[in-house]
Each structure stands twice: as structure tokens, then as C-alpha cells.
Amino acid sequence: MPAQVAPVADERAGLLSYLAQQRYVLRLTAYGLTDEQARATPTVSTLSVGGLIKHVAATERGWIDTVRQRPQSSVGEYLENFRLGPDETLASVLDRYDVVASETEAVIASIADLGQPVPVPKDVPWNPRDVDAWSVRWVLLHLIEETARHAGHADIVRESLDGATAFPLLAAAEGWPASPWLQPWPGPAGGA
Q1: Measured between alpha carbons, how far is 174 from 82 in angstroms, rounded to an integer?
Q2: Nearest to 62, CA basis, from 47, 74, 50
Q3: Which element (helix H / strand E) includes 134?
Q4: Which end of the chain is least crowded, N or C, by CB within 10 Å?
Q5: pTM of the predicted model, to two decimals?
Q6: pLDDT of 12 over the 80 cut
């Protein structure tokens, strides 16, 4: 996937394309990392690249469950979703994220009207008490925002790990040629 979203024909394609792009840039923060590096918390926060990917996957699934009006996970599970567990690998979390993305695309494809109401869950303090429903469109916009926010967190964590930044990682992952103004990330000890 290139660094820019391709032209979009309609609202649904645009929302799904931008969500896919944000998923991709979040995944790029894990490019070339070991499981140990994916668990690392090199900043003052407790965030790790693997934990952020796991959290965003769980959050996306939770919102699609809300759209489908299925039960949500407990707060304890929510907090665990910020950590890559000792029995989890980066590959397993990335695979789970792919499954979640496919589920999202299938659910959204099955909804005729993006204006369809989505009841606001009242069991968490950050949701408004004076709004009864959002729309599927709102949920997709929120998922884009949530994914982009955490992709930014993951960028900072990744740069703190090994100095890799977004565009050199993208250039390495995409196989872009080196240029005077952009060198693909060479990977650990000069090899990806």
C-alpha cells in the first residue's frame, strides 16, 4: 500500500480506505521488530508497539460489536489489551488484526445505510449521556481517529526503540529506492 490513499469513488470506499491506510501505518511501526522489541516500553509510558496494535485491534472489534449490538468485553480485558502477553507473538497479534479488519469490511459491506443508528453504550464514563445513538458513519470516522492516534503513539515508541521513523520504514517495507532525501530503513545492524 503506498503512502497515500488512492482516489475514492464514494463515502463508504473513502472511509474504509482511510481506515485501511491507518491500519497499515500502525502495522508499519512493527516492521522488522522481534517479539521482545514489540513488548518493549522504551518511553515514560507503558505503551509498546505490540500492545498498541493489540489494543487497536480489540477496539476496532469492540466498535463493530457495538454496530452489530453484540456484548462487549470486560474492563479487565480492556486493560490487558494494551500489553503483548508472554504467550503472544507479534505475528499472532498482526494476524488477529488482519482478521478484525476483514470482519469490519464484511460488516460494513452488509449495511445498506451508513446513517444506520448505533446505540451509544452507557456503561463507560467517556461516552456522552445525552446522545442515544451515533451512526455507522460516525463509528468509522471514530475508528480512523482512534487508529491514527495510536499509530502516532506507536511511531514514538518505535523511534525510541531503534531510531526508525515512519517514512524510512515505509520505504523499506515498500521497496522504494534510496534517494538523496529519503533512505529506506536499513534494519538492525544494516539488514532488514
Answers
A1: 28
A2: 74
A3: strand 133-135
A4: C
A5: 0.92
A6: yes
